[in-house]
Design a protein that fits this description.
alpha/beta, Rossmann fold, eight-stranded mixed β-sheet, four-stranded mixed β-sheet, 10 helices, 14 strands, 35% helix
């Protein structure tokens, strides 16, 4: 079985790493700060509506200490502003032709990775998760905590996509090979334009005139560039059947990923 290297063990990366480890996949995480120390000292806990996932996930503080294998599946799960430094660190550590998967919001990470690596893949992340305390992730999706469209960048699909989708496709996660994954990611971006609104003036404004105008502008940009998109919102039938939003007892949802960055005081956010 192929190893999965998760670069960025936060909300998304932590949820994925825990679910894969629980299913028996070999996982290695790259973490930093308090999260690194928490996972060295104890298990990673993912709280879900259907009960907790509690697993030990081995972690390191840098790609430089990893002996990368030719068939490693490398997942970028950090925020977009951290991608350029991350891909340079991977290259310095000896990564060359291994598949690199961008498990990130937005549509700029793939280009940043492709400047360094030839084998780049896009992934649409549909995963309502929160990370505000080291060692713990809250996932509000059920029965699956995350769904992912996976494809080669800029288009197509290959054996690496199929291998990763097969590893992800289990009781906790759902993986789908997608021949035009960037159309899916552009659809997700249209949902994420409201993240900055949430962070700046409150989650009650994620619906209404400001959000509608932000989305309309994003759609106009796509049309002007001749780019289409695919709806991956709540009307996606996969979300209705496989991942419905539910409360996790004793855990209030922290808001968008941008709001969570502000709450943790990380010093930067993914929105320009």
């Amino acid at each position: 079985m192929r190893r999965v290297v998760v670069f960025g063990v936060g909300a998304v990366g932590g949820g994925i790493a825990a679910a894969l480890a629980e299913a028996g996949t070999e996982v290695l995480g790259i973490a930093r700060g308090a999260q690194l120390q928490a996972l060295r000292d104890g298990p990673l806990r993912v709280r879900t509506p259907d009960g907790d996932i509690v697993v030990r996930v081995p972690v390191v503080d840098s790609p430089a200490v990893i002996d990368f294998r030719p068939d490693d599946l490398i997942l970028l799960t950090m925020k977009s502003q951290d991608t350029p430094a991350a891909v340079q660190a991977l290259r310095a550590a000896g990564v060359t032709g291994q598949p690199v998967f961008c498990f990130q919001n937005g549509v700029s990470n793939e280009d940043a990775a492709l400047r360094v690596f030839p084998n780049v893949h896009g992934v649409t992340v549909m995963m309502p998760v929160s990370f505000t305390r080291p060692g713990e992730v809250v996932a509000n999706g059920a029965p699956k905590i995350g769904l992912f469209d996976i494809g080669r960048y800029p288009s197509g699909a290959d054996d690496d996509d199929r291998a990763l989708a097969a590893l992800l496709d289990g009781p906790r996660l759902g993986g789908f090979v997608h021949e035009d994954v960037m159309a899916s990611k552009r659809g997700k971006l249209l949902l994420n334009v409201s993240n900055a609104i949430d962070a700046a003036i409150g989650k009650e404004f994620r619906q209404g005139e400001i959000a509608e105008r932000a989305r309309a502008e994003a759609e106009a940009v796509f049309r002007a560039a001749g780019l289409g998109w695919q709806d991956v919102g709540l009307d996606d039938p996969r979300r209705k059947s496989l991942m419905q939003m539910k409360d996790v007892p004793g855990a209030a949802r922290a808001g968008s990923s941008t709001t969570q960055s502000l709450a943790r005081g990380t010093g930067s956010v993914e929105t320009d």
